[in-house]
Automatic annotation (TrEMBL):
Pathway this chain belongs to: Cofactor biosynthesis; coenzyme A biosynthesis; CoA from (R)-pantothenate: step 5/5
CC per GO annotation: cytoplasm
Enzyme Commission number(s) of this protein: 2.7.1.24
The family this protein is said to belong to: Belongs to the CoaE family.
Name listed for the protein in its UniProt record: Dephospho-CoA kinase
Phylogenetic placement of the source organism: Bacteria, Pseudomonadati, Pseudomonadota, Gammaproteobacteria, Vibrionales
Superkingdom field: Bacteria
Catalytic activity: 3'-dephospho-CoA + ATP = ADP + CoA + H(+)
CDD domains attached to this UniProt entry: DPCK (cd02022)
Keywords annotated in UniProt: ATP-binding, Coenzyme A biosynthesis, Cytoplasm, Kinase, Nucleotide-binding, Transferase
Binding site for ATP: 12-17
Entry-linked Pfam families: CoaE
Location(s), subcellular: Cytoplasm
Function of the molecule: Catalyzes the phosphorylation of the 3'-hydroxyl group of dephosphocoenzyme A to form coenzyme A.
Length: 204
């Protein structure tokens, strides 16, 4: 069984950048956000269930999911949000497990933004947290998504705190610095994970 390294961090922490640096070493990346889109693609049971529940006007003309309409619907209806989570979370978990089974690299990276919030670190052998100062998170997210600082702070408030994530972490990458120091930290962790993946205890 391949060793699974969980990767998480708050909004604007730089998870994608870190994942891409690991991918450059030919490490398989399993991204929960990508899988969440895959399980509601046209022709999937996930999309069919949503259309059955909310009607065909939740679909765009090409048959794909109208995401902004769905966001609006669940924003105004907590029970609908719960229904959607109950529908999709097991599908996403099953697909993540299947993708882990198919990995061929020495270890794989399982990227889940809300890993600690949903206690999904149970799917991993080690948890790597990308840690960053809150002021940096706000600034980066504002620039990336063109949103107000207040909106970013609301998102931060809905996520696990830095302290909660760090308490769950086996390894931590601080991403307050420049791109070069981040690259160096990933190189060191990659070497460390390769060593771990070769030890008999790595796959329990």
């Amino acid at each position: 069984m391949t060793m699974v390294i969980g990767l998480t961090g708050g909004i604007g922490s730089g998870k994608t950048t870190v994942a891409n640096l690991f991918a450059a070493y030919h490490i398989d990346i399993i991204d929960a956000d990508v899988i969440a889109r895959e399980v509601v693609e046209p022709g999937t049971p996930g999309l069919q269930a949503i259309a059955d529940k909310l009607g065909s006007d939740i679909l765009l003309t090409d048959g794909s999911l109208n995401r902004s309409k769905l966001r609006e619907a669940i924003f105004n209806d907590h029970s609908l949000k719960q229904w959607l989570n109950d529908l999709l979370h097991p599908m996403i978990r099953e697909k993540m497990k299947a993708d882990i089974e198919k990995t061929t690299s020495a270890y794989c990276l399982l990227v889940i933004p809300l890993m600690v919030e949903n206690n999904l670190q149970t799917m991993t052998d080690r948890l790597l947290v990308v840690d960053v100062d809150e002021s940096v998170q706000v600034q980066r997210t504002q620039q990336r998504d063109n949103v107000a600082a207040e909106q970013v702070r609301k998102i931060l408030a809905s996520q696990a705190t830095r302290e909660q994530r760090l308490a769950a972490a086996d390894d931590v990458i601080s991403n307050n610095g420049d791109a070069e120091s981040l690259k160096q930290k990933v190189a060191e962790l990659h070497a460390y994970y390769l060593t771990l993946s070769q030890s008999p205890a790595a796959s329990n």
